[in-house]
Amino acid sequence: MIAPSRTNDPHRWLVFAIISAVYFFVYFHRVSTSVIAQDLLIAFQTHATALGVMSSMYFYVYALEQPFVGYLTDRLGPRRVVGFWTIIAACGCIVFGLAPSMFWAAVGRGLVGFGVGGVYVPALKSFSIWFRKRDFATLTGLFLAVGNLGAIVATTPLVWISKCCGWRQAFLIIGGISLVIAAATLFLLRDYPRMLSRDDETARDQTDDTGESRKTVIFRVVTSFSFWSFAIILFGSMGAFLTLQGLWASPFLMSAYGLELTQASNLNMLIPIGFVIFSPLWGWLGNQVFRRKTDLLMTLLALMILVWLAIIMPAHMLGIGGVSAVMFVSGGLACGIATTVWTLVRETTPQHILGAASGFLNPFPFFGVAVFQGITGAVLDWVGMRNGMYPPVAFRYAFVICLLATVICLIFSLFVARHLSRKEQETA
Hints:
By secondary structure, this protein is mainly α. 84% of the residues lie in helices and 0% in strands.
């Protein structure tokens, strides 16, 4: 009797729409500092290391709270977590817009990171309640695509808004919009279909089919080889990619290709466009073309290595057309990596602990971003500015670190494929 309620209740589309609207701003905040990086350097009279640390506050706070968010999602329900955490994000956005110093900008950025950290895991929990299991990969891809629409707005449109009314006013407006969406989440959504009560779901989730307790199963999952391999892949590949997209893409394009900020942000916008356009493809490829999803994951990581090799090439060898294609493809590949990893997590994790396990796994890409942003910023400062801008060679050195991280992720994906294949043979 549970299945029909999950597939026929039209309220599920309102749930998806409003939570997706919240997620739109999650990605906006994730990458917004890239196109206003130069404005921030001037406004706070600071340097790349400090800017990298300030920007990374989003990711450190986001990552650290994920297990706590997973626990509260099960205890309070997805609606309350998403709604109240979005209010915190809105307050952080306002603090960031009013910040008189780098310290207060970091405080605002940290509050934003804390607030938007209460969206993804509750969303996965909510979708698992309202939609069928076979729809999970498609919904995840669409959800990530909506988020990357926010990343698109955080490029050239944010530059236009910043030029029109200033970057501070832009963030104050976004804070107000976030408060409205938070209210819609709290007052318009339900956590469960009418035919499935919260008590029914809670009781069903206490044990799995083997009779093991919830805590025992969670411990077994988060100490498994697959879990830590997925964690390393998300840490390295997505951490490196989001460092490019979220902070250094526009400054790199301005330095290496001599572009103005608006031109650089136009090329930066190709990354989330690629993410959105490619998002419907990966679920189909994983089901219809590749025999195993691990094969698709290895292919995507190998192609991402080629992307990093292209990025660190001298500008005259790639040209504007070449780097435009690379930006576009990188977004599509990143979408594929994220979607495929989370689908593998969904398929290898017992349904009744998916929220908690996701809460433990979701910090790793953001720890990765925080670490890579700090390291790459230090590399840029080590090389030093020339004529008020970091030279192309500085970005080349920084991005070599991202390349090596992606190579390590490919190696771990080979281990994952072998491990899951062995498990399949044991259970056959």
